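Sample entry (168 residues):
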Amino acid sequence: EIYYEGYGPAGVAVLVEVLTDNRNRTAANLRVAFSKNGGNLGETGCVSWIFEQKGICLVKKITDEELLLEASLKGGAESYEMLEGDNAEVFTTIAHLEMLSLTLKTQGFEVNNAELRWIPINSIEVTDIEQARLLIKLINAIEGLDDVQDVTTNAKISEEFVLTVGIT
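Predicted structure, serialized as tokens:
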């Protein structure tokens, strides 16, 4: 497992998680994807400082947000965010992820998924149509590479903006 880092259109930080048996091939493929889509593959450490790894539990069918808060705090959560459809994401440190998941389950919550995820510390709002299109094109090109497991950015593109400009 290797992480590659770079910058996309509008100065957006891009963190790419890769599982490969050939670093040279993967680096070359990523370099081409970045350069053809308005980005630059960077050196190790150029954007990783913009992200922090968190443990996240996806909890389904929340009926009482107050009970979720109590159980989350008991399990070592740092924060939570309510999502559509009575679901929530509960955030914690890497060290507390398993404890949080078990605590939520024993408190009667349906934990659908517990995972580690890179979360941007600072986000960049992309409001230019062409920059947003190039960024989406870059992400799609990177995700299309065989060895790529995950792509994380610090871009913030509002859903309304995405619908307005017709980015898919």
